[in-house]
Structure formats: structure tokens, C-alpha cells
Amino acid sequence: MGKESLMIAKELKRLHSNTVWFERFMKSHVSHLHKSNLVTVRAECQRQDLPYLSMRLYEAVRKEIWYRPDMFFYRDMLFMLARNKKVDETKKIWEDLKKEGVIFDQHTFGDLVRAFLDGGLSLEEMHIYDEMRHSPDPPMSLRYRVMLKGLLPYPELREKVKDDFLELLPDTVVYDPLEDLFDEEEWRKESDDD
After folding, report:
1. 57-77 pLDDT, tens digit each
2. 16 lies in a domain?
3. pTM
């Protein structure tokens, strides 16, 4: 990160509570940044979990003449918003990527599902999961297995994903954890005997 990018990031953090000064700074400094510096400042705000600044820089990047829709650009924004539990912003980003025709691959969908579950946003996670199901990218056994492992704390959701997995890839075997195969008491009894 260059000196100019550091200065801009610092000033954005300092001025974001004062709307008038913040808007002036966006027009006078941020709008004149080179591509690499603007992208770097946006990435730094995401890294520091600053949703408001990240969204403003997201809008600034999308207005640039050099901007082209990119899966990773949207993925990083969605990860940061999931960590910060920003539902409205997430919906806006999702609408934007749909308008621009951005298509995620199965790996990215799986990572997003996990990020939203970890963030406690299960409704948004289900929306992303439904998008994954209807994606033109073919389903991958490994991605579903990783998701099933991550969904152990969410048994109802895990069963839905497991049923979908078996429907999409019927010749596969899903291994359930040992706790699911026995009653809770029987499992503890066998563990104590060992």
C-alpha cells in the first residue's frame, strides 16, 4: 500500500462522521485516485471491517471508466458485509451483481454460504444457497461435502442441503457424524466404556 493510499484511508476514517467534509474529500481526493490506489484503499477499508467506507468506495470504483464486473470484487464485499451483519447492503450488492451478469462458481458460493452462516445471517445464506442451486455452474461433490461439514451446528439446514446433494448427485454417499447414528445416551455410554 502506497503512501497516498494510506493517507486517503486515514482521512476517510477521520472524516466519515462529518458528512459535509467527507463529501468534499470524496470529490477532491478519492475521485482523482489512480486505479490501483482506489482499489487498494477499498481493500484496506474492507480489511478493517468498515462497511460504510467500503460501500462508498465500492460505488466510486463502479463509476470509474476502467471498471469491469468481477466475481472477486463482489465476493470480497459480500464477505465483509457478512462479517458485519449488514443485510441491506448485502441485498444491494447482490442486486448489482445480478444486473451486471456476474456468475459465481461453486467454490465461491460455498464460501459465501459459510461466511453468512458464521455471521449469523441464515436468511441471506438461504438466498445465496438457492442461487447456488440454480447456477449454471455444475454442482461439485466436494463443495457440498465441505458445506455439510460446516453445517453440523445447523441440523435443519444441513438436512435440506443433504437432501439437495443426494438429489443432484444420487450416486454419492454422505457420511453423517457418529452422534447422528446413535441416541445421545448410547453414544456417551459407549464412550465411557472405552
Report:
1. 888 888 888 888 888 989 999
2. yes
3. 0.75
